[in-house]
Amino acid sequence: xxxxxxxxxxxxxxxxxxxxxxxxxxxxxxxxxxxxxxxxxxxxxxxxxxxxxxxxxxxxxxxxxxxxxxxxxxxxxxxxxxxxxxxxxxxxxxxxxxxxxxxxxxxxxxxxxxxxxxxxxxxxxxxxxxxxxxxxxxxxxxxxxxxxxxxxxxxxxxxxxxxxxxxxxxxxxxxxxxxxxxxxxxxxxxxxxxxxxxxxxxxxxxxxxxxxxx
Length: 214
Fold this sequence. Notes:
The chain is mainly alpha-helical. It has helices at 7-16, 24-27, 34-43, 48-61, 69-77, 86-96, 106-118, 121-132, 142-160, 168-180, 190-199, 201-206, 209-213, and strands at residues 66-68, 103-105, 139-141, 187-189. The two termini are 22 Å apart.
């Protein structure tokens, strides 16, 4: 599944790799196990060279080879200095931590990143649903969506939205449930989420939001 990248995608990969260099001579020093790298080429949509770039940046920031939540928050805050990204980073960390062991390995990181940047629309929507489903019980509640929206607005900061009303997150959640909760039972299931998103042009366009947030 490995593929080459255009200039835009290459920039995304570099950014996700925490500003690492792709100099060919430096890449040869990457100490990733070849068999592990080959496996990730099959599991993701990244080429071997792209994975080397990502891994070098990952190891520069996280020499132990895994990221705990505190380190993840510190790294993520560098991308959003104008706001408070700590809560959104917490939710994002839990989505990346697929083994629920309090740490994110390089494998966890690039598998999710591959979905976010290059996955199919269905893959991206499933990943987004998992992010919003904070307690991972298979449905999104108003409380969960409200927490997510507040974290996003906090992260973007008042400089980004200087005229934002205090009730803007609540309005967003109300609109979300009006569109998604087809049977009005107060929760949104994965089936409702996928069906609504795939029929809504605005929501489909908003999936590109992840290209900028991640």
